[in-house]
Q: What sequence folds into this?
């Protein structure tokens, strides 16, 4: 039975382990998705591995997304200045307390923080519950890091699945290849995923394989939202 609710997963990690850069949730990857699915009639709840406070990647408040620099306005800035919305990132639900039966889909946001806390046994168990119930599993950018340890039976969920995620080429262009703990692209391939990416970096690219929907980078978040909403309505 449809619940018209989507569980969105965000990071609790605000800095890298080896370098001094700060990181966290790439805000647009949450807001662009919500700006699509909420008008389509779906309520979004927010959870994180530890629960509680969610740091924001400072660069996500400065770089251009979808033609708008947040410092000059745009959809992300409207969310950022919204006190009620930002207060939701102060005290998020703990992943271990989430119940897959209460939602139609799960959506994993990115930001480099997820490279450090999305390989989480509670998140893997929760994601498997969504998948085994025939519900939508979706992710964008670094969000597919949350798929790396998910198993269905004895096999990785991503094995033989067509998907995408932040590419190693994009990691290099972002100058984070020495800061991240692994190549997401390579780790997905190691688990048997049929990884694909756009011809050009940093353009919107979404891959659907049954109930699995993934987007390559921050500018893919809205398109992932559109794909999730369309499939839920079908």
A:
């Amino acid at each position: 039975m449809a619940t018209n609710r989507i569980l969105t997963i965000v990071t609790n990690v605000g800095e890298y382990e080896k370098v001094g850069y700060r990181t966290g949730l790439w805000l647009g990857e949450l807001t662009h998705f919500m700006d699509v699915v909420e008008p389509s009639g779906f309520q979004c709840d927010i959870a994180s591995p530890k629960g509680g406070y969610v740091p924001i990647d400072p660069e996500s408040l400065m770089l251009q997304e979808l033609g708008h620099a947040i410092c000059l306005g745009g959809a992300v800035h409207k969310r950022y200045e919204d006190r009620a919305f930002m207060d939701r990132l102060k005290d998020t639900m703990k992943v271990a307390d989430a119940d897959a039966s209460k939602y139609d889909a799960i959506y994993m946001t990115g930001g480099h923080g997820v490279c450090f806390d999305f390989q989480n046994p509670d998140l893997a168990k929760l994601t498997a519950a969504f998948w085994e119930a025939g519900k939508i599993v979706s992710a964008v950018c670094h969000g597919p890091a949350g798929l790396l340890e998910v198993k269905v039976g004895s096999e990785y969920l991503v094995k033989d699945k067509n998907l995408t995620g932040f590419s190693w080429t994009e990691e290099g262009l972002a100058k984070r290849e020495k800061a991240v703990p692994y190549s997401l692209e390579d780790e997905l391939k190691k688990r048997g995923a049929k990884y694909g990416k756009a011809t050009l970096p940093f353009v919107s690219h979404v891959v659907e394989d049954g109930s699995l929907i993934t987007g390559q980078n921050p500018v893919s978040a809205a398109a992932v939202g559109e794909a999730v909403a369309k499939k839920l309505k079908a």
